[in-house]
């Protein structure tokens, strides 16, 4: 039937060539094979009319048709790496009393640790996103996670609060590549119809990070001190860095660009990527990539409103990391070790949100099935339904939290 799911989904064909081993995918971006060299590309091979390099039919290097196990391995690694950064963002806040005592500073200054880390989240993506378009996601991820591990480890040896704040800021700035590049890696490997499930696996775990960090680290801070909490963060991020080393390049323009360079070197002819003809200078690519998000933000009301709404939600969540200890430790007399348990509700909410989103994705697929034949992507508004419910529940829950702040109310 014309409105069946098969006619809607533009799923990539299955590979007809032998799968490329993972180690070759990681080391060799061009994945050069005899089939690549023998393929007939459109063009004349000259500067005026270069050969336009494209994916071969059923090309095993095409991220969309890589083996499924490799796709999900990469998705899990990226989710874990993202989780390590979100965990690091709030983990040290569990040791605020120890930091105050060790460096003899006010609670206001110590809270700036989390604020600066999150502030770096806004600065980092403006750098890493354009660089990933120019040099690929693989090299940017490896570089940034290596530096995040380095700065996180250096926090352990800090001798004053200024060093802690500066090092945490840089750790957040380099770790912010997870916000932009990790999601891009997942999008590279899944088409629109199947991407939602992969994104749920990718987003669900990382957003648990800010919730589980205070639960785990509040006990550690009381038992062993703030340096052990900082050490745990460094180990967590370091393990994620090791995982990132096994993630191959997935950005198609960079992959085809590398293949074109290899073909040009071997044949002496001129090859250019079909997705990126190479006429733009690196400076132009970076300028366009940095300007485009701001143009969308200022010129598109929907982007502006949704970005503002997400900023408020994200900011509210991180303000709770400062508010919960005040309410439960200061007003209700909880111990510091037990104060992390106040974030259990937030973690449960994240899990419920993932389940609801998974179920809603089934509805989204039915929306696609009802669209005209040949349409593979539903309107963006089709995914908005769960947000409509959340938009009502969020202010109600915040009102309940404020209303029950008094110790006399359970």
Automatic annotation (TrEMBL):
<feature type="transmembrane region" description="Helical">
    <location>
        <begin position="139"/>
        <end position="159"/>
    </location>
</feature>
<keyword id="KW-0472">Membrane</keyword>
<feature type="transmembrane region" description="Helical">
    <location>
        <begin position="228"/>
        <end position="247"/>
    </location>
</feature>
<keyword id="KW-1003">Cell membrane</keyword>
<protein>
    <recommendedName>
        <fullName>Major facilitator superfamily (MFS) profile domain-containing protein</fullName>
    </recommendedName>
</protein>
<feature type="transmembrane region" description="Helical">
    <location>
        <begin position="340"/>
        <end position="361"/>
    </location>
</feature>
<feature type="transmembrane region" description="Helical">
    <location>
        <begin position="302"/>
        <end position="328"/>
    </location>
</feature>
<dbReference type="GO" id="GO:0022857">
    <property type="term" value="F:transmembrane transporter activity"/>
</dbReference>
<keyword id="KW-0813">Transport</keyword>
<keyword id="KW-1133">Transmembrane helix</keyword>
<dbReference type="InterPro" id="IPR011701">
    <property type="entry name" value="MFS"/>
</dbReference>
<dbReference type="GO" id="GO:0005886">
    <property type="term" value="C:plasma membrane"/>
</dbReference>
<dbReference type="Pfam" id="PF07690">
    <property type="entry name" value="MFS_1"/>
</dbReference>
<feature type="domain" description="Major facilitator superfamily (MFS) profile">
    <location>
        <begin position="74"/>
        <end position="410"/>
    </location>
</feature>
<dbReference type="InterPro" id="IPR020846">
    <property type="entry name" value="MFS_dom"/>
</dbReference>
<feature type="transmembrane region" description="Helical">
    <location>
        <begin position="198"/>
        <end position="222"/>
    </location>
</feature>
<feature type="transmembrane region" description="Helical">
    <location>
        <begin position="103"/>
        <end position="127"/>
    </location>
</feature>
<comment type="similarity">
    <text>Belongs to the major facilitator superfamily. DHA1 family. Polyamines/proton antiporter (TC 2.A.1.2.16) subfamily.</text>
</comment>
<feature type="transmembrane region" description="Helical">
    <location>
        <begin position="165"/>
        <end position="186"/>
    </location>
</feature>
<feature type="transmembrane region" description="Helical">
    <location>
        <begin position="69"/>
        <end position="91"/>
    </location>
</feature>
<dbReference type="InterPro" id="IPR036259">
    <property type="entry name" value="MFS_trans_sf"/>
</dbReference>
<keyword id="KW-0812">Transmembrane</keyword>
């Amino acid at each position: 039937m014309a409105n069946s799911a098969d006619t809607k989904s533009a799923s990539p064909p299955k590979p007809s060539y032998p799968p490329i081993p993972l180690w070759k995918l990681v080391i060799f971006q061009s994945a050069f094979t005899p089939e690549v060299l023998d393929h007939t590309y459109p063009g004349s091979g000259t500067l005026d009319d270069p050969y336009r390099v494209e994916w071969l039919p059923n090309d095993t290097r095409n991220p969309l048709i890589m083996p499924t196990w490799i796709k999900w391995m990469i998705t899990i690694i990226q989710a874990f790496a993202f989780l390590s950064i979100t965990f690091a963002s709030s983990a040290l806040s569990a040791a605020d009393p120890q930091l105050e005592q060790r460096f003899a500073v006010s609670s206001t200054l110590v809270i700036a640790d989390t604020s600066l880390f999150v502030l770096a989240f806004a600065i980092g993506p403006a750098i890493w996103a354009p660089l990933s378009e120019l040099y690929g996601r693989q090299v940017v991820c490896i570089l940034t996670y290596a530096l995040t591990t380095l700065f996180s480890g250096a926090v352990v040896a800090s001798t004053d609060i200024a060093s802690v704040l500066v090092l945490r800021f840089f750790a957040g700035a380099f770790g912010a590549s997870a916000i932009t590049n990790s999601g891009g890696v997942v999008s590279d490997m899944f088409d629109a119809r199947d991407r939602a499930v992969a994104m749920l696996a990718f987003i669900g775990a990382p957003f648990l990070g800010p919730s589980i960090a205070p639960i785990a680290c509040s006990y550690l801070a009381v038992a062993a001190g703030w340096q052990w909490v900082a050490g745990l963060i460094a180990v967590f991020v370091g393990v994620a860095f090791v995982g990132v080393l096994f993630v191959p390049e997935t950005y198609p323009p960079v992959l085809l660009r590398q293949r074109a360079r290899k073909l040009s070197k071997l044949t002496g002819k001129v090859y250019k990527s079909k997705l990126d003809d190479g006429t733009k200078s690196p400076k132009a690519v970076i300028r366009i990539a940095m300007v485009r998000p701001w143009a969308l933000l200022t010129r598109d009301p929907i982007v502006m409103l949704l970005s503002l709404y997400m900023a408020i939600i994200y900011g509210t969540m991180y303000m709770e990391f400062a508010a919960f200890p005040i309410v439960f430790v200061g007003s209700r007399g909880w111990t510091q070790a037990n104060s992390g348990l106040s974030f259990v509700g937030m973690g449960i909410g994240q899990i419920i949100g993932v389940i609801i989103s998974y179920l809603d994705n089934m509805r989204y697929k039915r929306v696609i099935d009802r669209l005209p034949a040949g349409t593979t992507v539903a309107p963006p508004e089709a995914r908005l339904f769960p947000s409509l419910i959340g938009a009502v529940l969020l202010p109600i829950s915040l009102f309940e939290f404020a209303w029950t702040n008094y110790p006399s109310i359970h």
